């Protein structure tokens, strides 16, 4: 990982999973990955888009199809955790 912020968020996500705080873990994990992805996109020379699907499209169009799919799955999980009426379950993780 290239950023201390993303490392901290990943560490928090792991701790949250251990104690069963799956909603918090999903959100922290998403932001950890997004921070790393933003740094990568900048290093690749692309302008950083605001929307998650546009960020995933950069991955897709540079040959990282599977990573772009996983990023969007993580985004949907974060939305469920932060905005949905349902809770994140162990099956989601």
Automatic annotation (TrEMBL):
Tree of life domain: Archaea
Designated name of the protein: HEPN domain-containing protein
Phylogenetic classification of the source organism: Archaea, Candidatus Marsarchaeota, Candidatus Marsarchaeota group 2
């Amino acid at each position: 990982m290239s950023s201390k912020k993303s490392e901290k968020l990943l560490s928090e996500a792991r701790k949250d999973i251990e104690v069963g705080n799956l909603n918090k873990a999903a959100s922290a994990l998403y932001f950890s990955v997004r921070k790393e992805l933003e740094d990568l996109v900048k290093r690749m020379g692309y302008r950083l888009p605001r929307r998650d699907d546009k960020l995933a499209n950069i991955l897709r169009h540079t040959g990282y199809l599977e990573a772009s799919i996983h990023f969007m799955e993580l985004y949907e999980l974060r939305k469920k955790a932060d905005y949905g009426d349902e809770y994140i379950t162990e099956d989601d993780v």
